[in-house]
# Entry
Amino acid sequence: MKKFLLLILCILQINVFAQDTANYEKPPVFPECETQNVQNLKACFNQKVLRFVFNNFKMPQIVADENYKGDIVVLFEVDQKRNFIVLYVDAIYDELKTEIKRVFGELPTITPATYNGRAIYKQYSFQIDIPLVNPASIQLDNNLEEKPNAISEIERQAKKEYDSINASLVPYTKLEYKSQLNIPFTHQSYAKFDRSINLIGTNSHTASKPFVYQEISRYYDFEAENKKLNKDV
# Structure
């Protein structure tokens, strides 16, 4: 009974998680789809890809010669840099593989998919019927199958942890000037504070080297001296 209840709880958590992540995702967007509602963006993306392939695909001669009827399966992604990238093509003829890669290589750059406001890559599988079928007669929502995105899945699972860490970050303030890090053991570095540390009354032990920034900060202000080198641009 306990195992059964645990299984039900896991299923409920998975369903809630899947619904939650879908609310923060946005598919890739063609320029012509930018005026569409968010709910219609996926269908608009499917339509634009199908239409582009239909209008630009040139059927290889071998397909006509052998009166071939079948399909091509393409696995592709739209990456964070807005590009279409063909990952794999499954087809009976090499000529079909070459042609579909050419067509996808001519697709324009578009706005990438986003999750939680950040650009991500998105993978899709695409089945092309041979002979080609006019997109107007195809059920668009079912023709392009969205593939799980391994990287974005990991990002989603770590979302709360990532956001909490990101919120705790503070700007880099060059704390090494007051740290236990060693000052570079070079003449150029040591010449900067050599006189200050050897003045009468400093009571420094100059034989203990290399020095650390925290130790020398009482005699020489590295941070202040470096700021003097900054120039207004």
User: Anything to note?
Assistant: Strands lie at 25-26, 70-78, 84-90, 113-115, 118-120, 122-130, 144-147. The chain has two domains: 25-166, 175-227.
